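Dock pyridoxal-5'-phosphate; give full complex structure.
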Amino acid sequence: MSDFTNPSMPPESPELYSAVAGPIGRPPGAERRIPAMPEVAGHDVKDLVQRFGSPMCVFDEPKLRSAYQRMISCFRAGWEDSYIGVSVKTNYLSAVVATFRSEGAWGEVVSGFEYRLCRDLGIPGNEILFNGPWKTDDDLRTAFKEGAKVNLDGDDELERVGRIAAEFEQAVAVGLRVNMKVNYPPWDKFGFGLENDHALEAARLIAQSPHLRLEGLHLHIGTYIPDPELYGRGMEALVQLGLRLERELDVEIKHLDLGGGYATRNTLHNTMLPGEAVCATPEEYAAAITAPLRRAANQFKSPPRLFLEPGRILVDEAATMITTVRAVKRIAGQQKAALVDCGVHILPTAYWYDHEIHPVEDYGHGVEDYKLVGPLCMQIDVLRQSVKLPALRAGDLLVIRDVGAYNFSQSMQFIYMRPTYVFAHAGGISVVREAEDDSVVRNQEQLPQHLINQETQNSILNRG
Ligand SMILES: Cc1ncc(COP(=O)(O)O)c(C=O)c1O
């Protein structure tokens, strides 16, 4: 229960109940007959499946490009010196990162793996924003050598970075990740707290170090944040902190980084309205974030550069999963289960979202209520607890929309391997990741000598 007598306790998010029927469902609009989607990114779905198998994932390259162009242009309209470091962990398919790079994007990384991926795709170190709660010494050395913008996450890292920086002839530039109470629950696993002056203390330590130079402040308030006002408040607080540091310490804040988290049209579980109705536009986010910066611009030693680290808002809506119904079963109550060949191992966002799912053909049959389940031998492999679709039969194709963010990078080869990923572009279709075979799991393995016997001798494990 919320404690309304204690103003320091934020209220819990409200749950809506109708007196007789339990949680209130979505309004009737959300229950409409979902139209058939015979094409994805201008290509016939049946042809795609014939060529690349099922399941498969299609990226619409022009959509990736237009999402980037819209985001950067509305931020630059509010603050000209704005740059986007695309969140690589949101989707680290090389083709996705390379597409954004060809539009001029920088990279935002949280590991040495992502850093090297950016470098391999031609992003210079000094156009990489390096975040994350754990960075290895070697990755930090490379990042400093190549001029990446490294944001420090905590006291131990600050101390470690001080030691590494002493190996360099000149002072090394660093940024500080700050956390603050702008949303609930606060995103406080990362960075230095604002309200308890932890960030101020860290900035003082950096200013006293002969090996370090504080150049930036970073804030990422959370992920899937539909309210631009929260970004506005975060930016205002970051600006005030930056001005205070410039006044009180001998530092110049050259960049402010507002992170990512901008919501998409996907609908979270147990929410009343569809995501489309609640998420803000890039223009609204840009207006909220750039206004505090414009107001304070002249008070800085020189106006800082603005970095953004969007992920899902750039990639989510550009990707579609195609899947085949493999079986239809009757389950308890009135519901049927439709078993498809796409499971949560390649669609982990099904744990958070009610993805929009379309039939590829609509034969005009009555609409039925299905529990949509995947092929994994696990009870939790459920894509939708309840979805209304025209009566399904084994062999029917379905299209799952807006799956570009976090599905590939969080996927795993559990029970079934990952499928083919393709890019649709002006020149046609290109495979950007081939379907995996058993070797993806087994190639790394070795059988100890004492387990090799007559029965195992044909195993690929005996190759060596
Ligand atoms: C530091 C940082 N920047 C950017 C992002 C991208 O977030 P999103 O994909 O929600 O935009 C994340 C993801 O959590 C993050 O941790």
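Observed: DSSP finds twelve helices and 22 strands in the chain.
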